[in-house]
Design goal:
10 helices; alpha/beta; 2 domains; four-stranded mixed sheet; 2-enoyl-CoA Hydratase, Chain A, domain 1; six-stranded mixed sheet
Amino acid sequence: MSYEQIRFDVSERIATITLHRPEKLNAWTAQMDQEVRAAMAIAEGDPEVRVIILTGAGRGFCAGADMSLLQGIADAGEAPAALGHHAPAATKANVRADFQRKYSYFPSLSKPVIAAINGHAVGLGLILSLYCDLRFASNEAKFGTAFARRGLIAEYGMAWMLPRLIGHAHALDLLFSARIIDADEAERMGLVNRVIPGDSFLVDVRAYALELANNVSPRSMTVMKQQVYNAMFQSLEEATISSEAAMLASLRTDDFREGVAHFVEKRAPNFTGR
């Protein structure tokens, strides 16, 4: 498949999706939405891919929705059908409907999705990062919600996801004020996992991704991801019961046997995901 607004690369078991409108700080468009969704589906279906990185070209991660689109909406007084506010991303069996909406589908992917936030992540760009499993930020990154300064609201489930990551007080601060914060403040809030110097940013993010791709069981990561997101809707009892069933199933897998064997034999693992 050819892409116009993203770049897609697969190497060393890592799929990298790069938003590629650097002259616009990778402002989001309907076409970019479609291309990212298609690339995510390809990465999900490729048995050689074990980790997905989402990043941006140039100085921005994603500066939010393209302003020309917002201007058109303001002039028309209504949202175009292309925004698809209520359209589900897909229909997957055994996946909560919560994680099949327009931008909330990243948690439904079986593979870890890492946001490599190289620059501005604002508005919709911030939302995209929230639905990634991990967020690493360059020390040059900036974050903001923007919505209150556009006469808008917390979009696409952000009011649900943001407090779960940084707490209600921090979430309301960022939503009400729409102020821009730097990477260090984002790390203190718990919005990002780690801040990395800009001159080694993508190298260091990729090194982490390679650790996941080569040294841990892909099956374990898939099950753990499901457990963590499902637990958001479960009681402790329900989470414990489901984990007991998952543990028993894991004991019958090739990856469990390999996990024991490579430790005992003091060699690198060769996990297959089975």
